[in-house]
Structure formats: C-alpha cells, structure tokens
Amino acid sequence: MAHDTAPTRGRPAFNRTMWREVGYLLLGLPLGVVGFVLTVTGLALGVGTLVTFVGIWIMAGALLLVRSFGVVERGLARTLLDLDVAEPPPLVSGPRETTVWRRVLAVLSDGLAWRTALYLVIKLPWGIFTFTLTLVGLCVLWPVLPWLVRGLSTVDRLLAGSLLAPTPLTERVRELEDDRGTVVDSAAADLRRIERDLHDGAQARLVALAMDLGLAKEKLAEDPETAAKMVADAHGEVKLALQELRDLARGIHPAVLTDRGLDAALSSVASRCTVPGGVRVNADLPSGPDRASRPDPAVEGIAYFTVSELLTNVSKHADARTATVDAWRSGETLMLQVRDDGRGGALERPGGGLAGLADRIRAVDGVFVVDSPVGGPTVVSVELPWRTRGAVPRA
Predict the structure, then answer these.
(1) Where are the domains of the chain?
(2) Can you give the pTM of this predicted structure?
(3) Does domain 177-252 have CATH number 1.20.5?
(4) Residue 308 contacts by C-beta under 8 Å, 6 or more apart in sequence?
(5) Closest Cα to residue 124, out of 23, 29, 21, 42?
(6) Residue 51's pLDDT is what?
(7) The CATH homologous superfamily of the domain defined by 256-385
(8) Cα 366–Cα 370–Cα 375 angle in degrees, nearest 5
(9) Rounded CA gap, 87 and 167, in Å?
(10) pLDDT value at residue 9
C-alpha cells in the first residue's frame, strides 16, 4: 500500500518540495510516451497472436516489461513526490525448480501487472495535460504556480498509490509467507532440540543401562552380590531415564494441557519456576476436557510455551524475587501477561529468545509487547486469537 510520508503538506509555497513536484510533472510526458508505447504495442501484439502459442509468451513478456516499468514509476514517486509505494512481492515465491509454465501463468494472472498497464495507458494523456499546464504555470501563471503544482501532483499521488501499489490482500499473502517461513524454521529448530536431548540424555543413559545389565548378567552366577548391586544401580538409572523422557514429553506437549486446559498447565509450569518468592497465577479461563469452550489446541500450545519460556528467562536472567502470570479471555482474544520485579532491560533483539517468541505469536496474528525499563519491572503482554482461522471447535 502507499503511504504519504511527506513531513507536512501545509500551504503551497515556492520551496524544495514544489520544485521536486515540478520535476515529476515535467517527466510525466516523456515517461508517459515510453510507457504507453511499450504497453500498447506489447499487449496489442500479444492479443493479435493469441490464436497461436506464441501470443501467450508475448503477452507474458509484455506484462513483465510493464511490471518492470512500474518499478521506475514507484521510484520516482518516492523520490519526487515523497510517496512511499510498497514494492510488490516476487511473482513466484516457490522453489527454484518452479516450472516455466507456472511462471508464465503467474505473470498473466498478476493483478499488479494489469493495473500498472492501465496506469501507463492513463499516464500519456494525463502527462500531456500536466506537462502543458506546468509549462504554462512556469511561463504565465507564476504567482499561482505552487497551488497549480500541488493540485496536479495530488492527482498523480492518487494514481500511483491506487494503481502501482500492491493490494492489501497481496501484502497479507506476503506476511503469511514470511510467517510460514518463521514457523517452519522454528519447528525445525524444535525437532533438532528434541533429537539432541534424546541423543545426549535418555538415549545415552539407556545405552549405558543396557551395558550395565549385560555385565550384571555375566556376573550373576559367579558373583551374585556384585550382580545384585549392579541391578540396583540400573534400577536407579531406569528411573532417571523415565524422568528425562517425561520432561522431554512435557516439553513437546504436556499431558496436563490436553487433559485439564491452560489454567492447570500454567499453574504446573509456574510451580517449577525457581524464582525465590514463587510465581502467582491468576487465570480466568475455561478448563477441563470440554474442548468447545477452550481456545484452539494450537493457541493453547503457543500460550503455554510462551509463558514457559518467559518464566525460564525470569529465572535465569531477571534476578527477580517474584513473578505473576495473568491469563483471561477478552472477546475472541486470549490475553496473557507475565510480570516480574527483576532488574529489567529486556529487549526484543533480532535472533534473540524474545524475538523468536514474538515471531511465533505474530505468525497466528497475535500481538507481543515487551515493557522492560532498566531497573524493572518487566511486563510482557501477549494477545492471541481464541480461534485460529478455519478452526472447528472439538468436543
């Protein structure tokens, strides 16, 4: 979308802004001629040869050329009109091995390319008009030139902003693609973490346990006491391995969250936090096995792991004595707030833990806000949709 970023647009005057607008209006005619010729010639030739297979390629090539010309027009609008027109996303954002035919179809169905073609067709008669009127203003209507230029450039801003900018839907698609990439990367990182925890923890312990039991079996006949001691030690190792597996399973998706809901799950994670004064949980949420009244499972999972990681940060970095977790429903939004009385100074740095949490939350249209002045307190506020798009409540 286009955003007017000029500092102020007060009363028209003979200033630098006006002269940049004059330059844009005078460039309108030559650029309009070039754009009109390229657009009309290319599209007309493509339409005229559509009865053959070549026509499709000509049309696609013409639209690609038109789309490229739009880059020039957006650059001029930014430079001379102080109009920030967002650049569109790539036509095809898939893998490199995308077929040529798919790329051609993407060009032919690109709404921005067709709107840019319309802009370039309109630009010629409008460019002739503005070029002529600007020259008359420079030579004859000098006293009213600022007002004349302001009016003409306002129309140019409207044209560029409406025809050269990506639509809100296109912008939303780009945001979702970025969010999808973030979620995929996060999922891959979680899988690597689980694999590492299994390899370095329970798996290594179970391998050692198998070896110890093998030795105990060999000694069973000749040295029963030593074998009994080794079996007892192995029994202790089994308990430790089971505890590690439970902790790992809790880190993937805790059973209490599935069975009893977010209220009980947040109380459970708060009870394990090592803050000296403890963590107080204030949750006003539906709980129990009835899924219909609870948030979507995906939302509950994101909320649980967000609070879990925030409390881990409080334990490790905040130097806090107490912390508070609040959770409640506001309309169709799940509200979370984690507060601690630590030293503050927490920031959402690129690549940091808070940034990773924020990416996950924003991937489902959530809101993540950190308020952490130096000296504290730190308050992290989170808003999540109660239902994700297309979700159906499960009983």
Answers:
(1) 2-166, 177-252, 256-385
(2) 0.50
(3) yes
(4) 269
(5) 29
(6) 80
(7) Histidine kinase-like ATPase, C-terminal domain (3.30.565.10)
(8) 165
(9) 11
(10) 57
